[in-house]
Design goal:
The structure is a homotetramer of 467-residue chains.
Chain A lengths: L4 H4 L2 H4 L4 H21 L8 H5 L9 H11 L3 H15 L1 H4 L8 H37 L4 E6 L2 E7 H26 L18 H12 L13 H28 L6 E2 L19 H22 L11 H26 L4 E2 L1 H7 L9 H12 L1 H17 L4 H6 L2 H4 L4 H7 L9 H15 L2 H7 L5 H6 L1
Antiparallel strand pairs in A: 1-2, 3-4
Chain lengths: 467, 467, 467, 467
């Protein structure tokens, strides 16, 4: 764990992308390979126990592995060598069958997929938790008026619940996406040196299927050694998700500004304090999430650039993935977790929201007035008329309502009572309420999908894990 | 059309992303809005014809629009103004109902979606054509031996058909992805100034549905003014697709090198000529596709960075999309089209492929020899043994076969005949053939999906277009 | 000109990166080459006039050029062909000497450098103009108190002039950078097919020098066909400059928010209007500059990725530059110009700035109070003490000054008068004034540098242009 | 140290960017601040020793710091708190003066600059070492003929020394750049909470100067809390440098291909071995450097995107830098070091280079023939003529020399002897030799600059370090 991890990362992912986990992923591949091959009689059954018993990261000499990897160009070559030596110490016969028929990339890529699978499961669960919080928040504030702001300017009234429903709606698409992506990315890598499984002669596909079963991983049509869209797509899906998180954090940070002061991250001992400014409560989660929103796009572009790999194994492109993916997952995961954690405690100052609606002295109701007049005067004329009234209100420091009321032309079309109603935020919310319901229903109806999800998972990979 | 367009772009997309098409997209939105609102009695039926008849890009004063947009900050505001004036010249009453209840962003975003829809359809069709070519090529060369190269070094034999099957397999995933993305991206944008459709009072959802019907666009749960994952996801899907294309182009360019000379882009008058080097035939398509592989990741990162937008309308982030998406689509489309166009005429020199397999004087069969020995000697010992033999072969400039034959230890395990067989590429292809079939079957079975696709399209949006 | 150009681009650059200018750049190279070679007797003197007279973009058949370029893979090959034919029509003898000893890339790269040179000059001049505006603004508002905001929260008082001095300071570094970059980037490209100038036998360097003289371009040690840091560095310098512009725009946009309302972009007919919200004045320039801040980093990463080119001419990497650089220059130039244009008319509401300093009911002076107490109580104790007072002030809705005044412990250290002084923004500005002067002096002292600049330009390239 | 560090990073940088080094950088700032302030009488002289003695990273409770930082949003706030407590244990009076007048960002940014300074010094030294190797290699192979390849096709002869001179030339520009950048980036950060140094009243600049002296850091005109071009420029300079390294690695990797086999990375126990393919020697350094060439551009774009920071302290943008810069420096440094380390041992197969020049059966001399004919026939006619001869040579599998010799038209212009000479690579190298000398001279003349460098370093910052 590094000093900045608690700030930027998510501890639930911590164990998944350590050096040890990386090595264990590869060793899980090797153990499963031995089991699968022994079951099919490709290697002797007696080789399984001696091999599998050594497939534990704790037995690996990590410094030696690291320095050998610098010469070999990847971790699998020296790891297989260490493993073979470990097995040979007990059983030199079994040692012959370590890594049988596989290539380094099979171990590295499948190992990574085995790290990625629980990570994506955690993402999905955290997205669920986040979505649930947002649904609650949207319901709670469905009738809380607040200024809608476009171009960072107050525009017209909306409700805070409607804003949150928009956040939730975007989150639902990210859930859908991540689920689709997982189906393409969480698959076995197994092709041997050139993808043809030549070292296994005619038994390659059989072994692949048995290996997939061992690891609960679907077997793709063909190996994907130098076709990296599977990993890169995970990057893009997390990139989109981080973009959505960043947008929500941007909103919160803007609403938190001293002069607006409508929403606050939850307080807490030492949270967001300043070393020199004792009164401040800084939006720390927003900073973390916005930082992710800045960092992740560059990492996604790296994964896309890295796709242009050479022939049957990339030179540089593949290597570029090894640190990039864990970084990207860590940063995106940190953003997701910290924001999901912050939402339930979000402080909402309804009174301040209401006060802020008065800052423009009625100009925020311009559209409402304009639409009320447009039927009678036409959209264009109403626009110009209200714009003139607005100008007058600003110049004379009067409330727009008063200017409107004293306008003879408008008096022809609107009664004083009607004018009064126009300056009430609750009267100009359109179908915000129904739209919130549409999003909440979409959220609610997603739930059963997790059942489908399992149905669509013939290998039972995920179900098993959850027991 | 600019000078470099024929080189980098795809003419079939040309008409879709011009200034005129951009304006027409917005005008199609305005016309449909009038029709939808009139049908529901929100605006008078008599307003439809006067409005719709003016919704033609040819009537717009483009220079005036451009310069007004520079002041307004977007195209829709001055375009609506021009449209209103045009309508007013004929029918001042109808002019009142132009753009009724909508906001600029509704017109701009829906207009863009209307440009994007045929573009994605063209992408899907071109991917189909490309996949078909690859399937034919994979079948044709399923038994053509060629060196598999890892780390840019000859590794072991494979077949060219197997390499192409790998290309095809990746392409199929891109097809799947693009199809999924289209379902999320090709939707109506309609929310009014703050997304609440306040200007339409209680009739907002009704109008949205009617408008969606007019434009054959699904109506999403809620508008997505500042949640930009829909557009950004199109960018990521095209980014992944371009990555796959780039990988294929990298492969072709490497195989085309003077010293390898196994594959060539089709010849043609003036194709790939050099101004000073009369004999050269440059892989122009590869250059174009590789350039796209370098350019698109940066544009994708722009779209992801742009997602972090402010409140109910982004300041800068939204604007960043307007030129980026057409650029990205143009570049990705150019790469797709030029590569799809090149594949059917690809020249494959089977004899040269075979000759190149002999360059290593048998070292390329090291793994084959090693695996043949591994059963008897163990993987590790066989590895070391064959490595030593390889070293000797290199030092003494002998063929590995001869070194192997003269090795007493190996003679214990392998007969001369067996050794001979090991140095035949066709004898060390593993399950390449079955794997090719798996990919071809996946390709073939994708076809009926286009029927499903229509079933899954309740609005019949795509079907209608195809008639 | 495209519809969005007036919004996003700078008209002063317009003519520099058109198709015509691109072709003219290459033709200027060809004409200069003929002159240089004739002067040295490498080609006949009689060939110069017939060649040079045809080196006009207006004579080129652009559609034919475009379509031939799609086959040839670059513009220079078919352009040289057209030029040769044009010359041959008048003088078949002279036509023999067109493009003598050069390669396509020499024409394309030098042509681009010739487009880039005036562009960078315009950038430098616009940066000068911008810096001058900022210097005036900093002076004018050196004593205008405003809240400094950290983490988007009011922190302590500063002056608006000090904020502007910070903008100016960053701009000065960008000027310096752009000047240094120009020295490396604005150089001749001339190497022949492989950089060795083989086609000119032993006279290559002589010709290069004469050609450099003709074009007023320094001759680098060696050609840079596949070493692209010269162009990429221009991209990075513009990227840094755009980052600074984006930061300034971010500041303005935040200060412009309805609730803060301290600074406004200049008003103007149709500027920043909203189609539905008649009262709004949107910060259009900020949107444009922020969009550039989002777009340019992706384009810079493209230029850096493109550097990894193959051998003596890049396949794809070089091609990736051709549209990227003009895009990047156009976007960065638009941002620079629009912001430089906006600053002189910036409206500053000093009264509102002062009012906003009161929003925290004195909490903004916490650090001032703390420092006043720290000498006596220690920094830690003072911090905790003031934090407690701040908490009380918030809870009881009292002004911090009142809480402080009624605190017995504090009364020991500070008199009522001293306390009063602490709550005056002008009393807590530190050395803001001197720091502003430091920046203004740095700005003023940069001026003579433009004289140095010419001294450092032995070829007189820039001086000549300016006459 | 992580498992992949020896592969991707440079051990000489290892200690510079650890958690401990990060904390020590901040503590060095705090100690120097106490010393500077005491010297000026701003704080008591007696406070220095108690404070300075605690400014050791080894005394900090790292886990507590990490978890407090997650709440505070940065490391400096809790670090100052720990430091204060440590000091207070011994001397509660001195504890009052910890961090006097500074803000968190002063400690974090200056701390980072203190980490960056030795890193840039190491980069400069390694670039020197690399440049020296390249100069030696260029000299050694100045007359070694090899095929120049454009578009990845053999084009005409060049020398390997000329290719290496091109690498060196690009490296020299990177040295120049890095040196310029260092002057802007290695400066003090000291501004207090808002940059005005308000907490130090009228003594801010005085303290800043004394602090700069303590740390051997130039004092900039004004603090740069939210103007991040200084750090971002370091990123761009390293980005350009990595691009150059990537280009060199691309060249080596292409020349190393089995079929070309002209250059090899040095062999070594376990270097570049393959787990399944015993004969292979993979270009591991190229993979590492190419991976850096793919990764760094994304990180540079992050740094540029992060520049658009808010007001007096960025929310997210600043945070985005903290892990990005060390990553970027680590990756770029690893690429630099591994490539610099590989060059001296590079194996060059001159015989194979010569053999490869014969692969085209003379077509590689087409330009030589064309130029020889161009004087007589005109460039265009010569081009067409030689192209036709080339075509014939290919079709009839004849050497171009033979086709040329048997051509009656050519016989008019060239004797058999002249033709013979045209097919010798040494006869068509143009001014390669002089160009190599120009680069070598530029390299040699850079040396004295390091003296200048020190002269230009009034603070003696670098000199001191080197003693």
């Amino acid at each position: 764990m590094s000093l900045l991890d608690p700030l930027f990362r998510w501890d639930a992912l911590d164990g998944l992308f350590t050096d040890r986990a990386r090595v264990q992923g590869m060793l899980d591949f090797e153990a499963a390979l031995a089991r699968a091959e022994a079951r099919l009689g490709v290697i002797p059954k007696s080789a399984v126990a001696p091999i599998a018993s050594k497939c534990r990261a704790g037995l690996v000499d990590m410094p030696a592995l690291a320095s050998a990897a610098a010469r070999a160009g990847n971790l699998a070559i020296p790891m297989v060598k260490q493993l073979t030596e470990l097995v040979a110490m007990d059983d030199s016969e079994a040692a012959r069958y370590v890594h049988w028929g596989a290539t380094s990339q099979d171990a590295i890529d499948t190992g990574f997929v085995l790290q990625l699978r629980p990570a994506l499961e955690k993402f999905e669960a955290e997205l669920d938790r986040f979505a649930d919080s947002l649904a609650r928040l949207a319901k709670k504030h469905r009738a809380t008026p607040v200024a809608a702001r476009t171009w960072m300017q107050q525009a017209l009234p909306t409700t805070f619940g409607f804003i949150v429903a928009g956040w939730l709606d975007a989150l639902l698409r990210n859930q859908e996406r991540l689920h689709e992506v997982g189906k393409r990315a969480i698959v076995l890598q197994f092709g041997g040196a050139a993808g043809t499984l030549a070292a296994l002669e005619e038994r390659g596909i059989e072994v692949a299927k048995a290996l997939g079963k061992e690891l609960n991983l679907p077997v793709p049509e063909v190996s994907w050694h130098s076709h990296r869209d599977r990993a890169a797509e995970v990057a893009t899906a997390l990139g989109l998700c981080t973009g959505t998180l960043g947008k929500i954090a941007r909103d919160i940070s803007l609403h938190t500004q001293t002069e607006i002061a409508e929403i606050f991250e939850p307080a807490g001992e030492g949270r967001g304090g300043s070393s020199t400014l004792p009164h401040k409560r800084n939006p720390v989660t927003c900073a973390v999430v916005l930082a992710a929103g800045i960092r992740v796009p560059g990492l996604v572009s790296t994964m896309l650039s890295a796709m242009v790999q050479e022939e049957e194994r990339g030179l540089g492109g593949w290597h570029a993935e090894w640190e990039t993916m864990p970084d990207l997952i860590g940063i995106a995961g940190g953003a997701l977790h910290h924001l999901a954690d912050t939402i339930p405690g979000l402080e909402v100052d309804k009174a301040k929201m209401r006060d802020n609606l008065e800052i423009t002295h009625g100009l925020i109701y311009s559209e409402a007035v304009q639409m009320a007049l447009a039927g009678a005067m036409g959209r264009g004329a109403a626009h110009e008329h209200v714009q003139a009234a607005g100008k007058l209100a600003v110049e004379e420091h009067r409330h727009l309502r008063e200017v409107i009321k004293s306008d003879a032309e408008i008096a022809k079309h609107l009664s004083a009572k009607e004018i009064g109603r126009l300056f009430n935020p609750k009267e100009y919310l359109g179908v915000a309420d129904e739209l919130i319901d549409r999003v909440l229903q979409a959220h609610a109806s997603r739930k059963p999908k997790s059942v489908d999800k399992e149905a669509a998972d013939p290998h039972g990979v995920r179900r098993k894990k959850r027991r």
